[in-house]
Amino acid sequence: MQIVAKKVLLVPLDPVHDVALKIINRKLKERGHKTLLLPPDMSIEEIVDQTLKVKPDIIMISRTMGYGVAEVLSKLVDLLEVAGIRDRAKIVIGGKAIKPKLAAELGFDAGFGERTSYEEAIAFVEGRKYIPKVEEIIKREKDITIGYSYKFHNQKIENMLNEITEEILDWCEDKTSSGIKRAHLREKMMELKGEKNKTSRSNINKKLQHKDQQLKLT
Ligand code: B12
């Protein structure tokens, strides 16, 4: 199969850890892709700036450190969207601190967890379907929630928990978060620019609703 060469920007969004991206970078180069590996510890603004210069087809981000993951990554996705990069590049994230579900919630095109195989990462760049080897399927984590449900066995406890939830929802009705404020600002900026892109508008609304929901639940 003929490989269509892609322009890939690799971003270690971490103070130091960049081993995985160095390996992915080498493998992509070997297959004829054009790549640029940024150094670790760049600010989000510098990364967005580089992305505007390089104009990649795919941005591959890696995050190892567990602290501040949601905040750092949602800020990056927000800024890439405002800069108009979101519409023309695929943005994926992988690393020790990443779970595919988290990546999807934050708006990435794909998320790769701790034991991702390099073949899977390369297949994504080349738009190929990845078929894991048998031993990899066996290694995958078992779903420990199977067989459980949200049904309460004790009605009294369910009622008490519902009461507490109601009280919390009342308490946080007029509260907000920096994420929601950012999303509102971004929406205003897009309105000012006369942005008509319905897809990203509906994404923002979805994100706002989701953040509202998260806020109500925490
Ligand atoms: C090597 C290493 C370092 C090296 C980094 C060298 C380098 N250039 O990267 C050095 C010594 C510098 C280092 C420093 C620190 N480290 Co360190 N380090 C490690 C170590 C031992 C291995 C990490 C590694 O390279 N693994 C190999 C790579 C290939 O695996 P990976 O990153 O998980 O990548 C795989 C997948 O995640 C995925 N992937 C990753 N990124 C991406 C991206 C894409 C797009 C895709 C598709 C896939 C993908 O593909 C890879 C293959 O499966 C781990 C422990 C461990 N066993 O994991 C700790 C570890 C990551 N470090 C840790 C810590 C705490 C630190 C320090 C803060 C320690 C300190 N107190 O000083 C410092 C950082 C200092 C700072 N300024 O903040 C913690 C992180 C804890 C946490 N949950 O946040 C760990 C887990 C150790 C521990 N058990 O506590 N570290």
Describe the structure.
- With 218 residues, the chain is α/β, with parallel strands linked by helices.
- It has 9 helices and 5 strands; from the N terminus they run βαβαβαβαβααααα.
- A 5-stranded parallel beta sheet has the order 2-1-3-4-5, with helices on both faces.
- Helix 2 (44-54) packs parallel to helix 3, helix 3 (69-82) packs parallel to helix 8 (178-192) and helix 8 (178-192) packs antiparallel against helix 9 (198-217).
- The chain is globular, with a radius of gyration of 20 Å.
- The structure holds cobalamin.
- Residues 15-21, 60, 62, 64-66, 92, 94-96, 112, 114-116, 121 line the site of cobalamin.
The gist of it:
Helix content is 50%, strand content 11%. The chain has helices at residues 19-30, 44-54, 69-82, 100-106, 118-125, 134-139, 155-171, 178-192, 198-217, and strands spanning 7-12, 34-37, 58-62, 90-94, 110-112.
Major sheet: arrangement of strands: 2-1-3-4-5
What small molecules does this complex bind? cobalamin
How many helices does DSSP assign? 9
What is the C-alpha radius of gyration, as a whole number of Å?
Answer: 20 Å
What oligomeric arrangement do these chains adopt?
A: single chain
Write the CATH fold name of the domain at 7-125: Rossmann fold
CATH class of the domain at 7-125: Alpha Beta
Classified in CATH, the superfamily of the domain at 7-125 is: Cobalamin-binding domain
Give the class from helix and strand content and strand pairing. alpha/beta
What is the architecture of the domain at 7-125 at the second tier of CATH? Answer: 3-Layer(aba) Sandwich
The global form is globular
If you average the pLDDT, what whole number results? Answer: 86
Distance between the termini: 49 Å
Note the beta-strand portion. Answer: 5-15%
Low-confidence stretches: none
The largest β sheet comes out as: 5 strands, parallel
Number of E strands: 5
Helix content: 40-55%
Order of helices and strands: EHEHEHEHEHHHHH
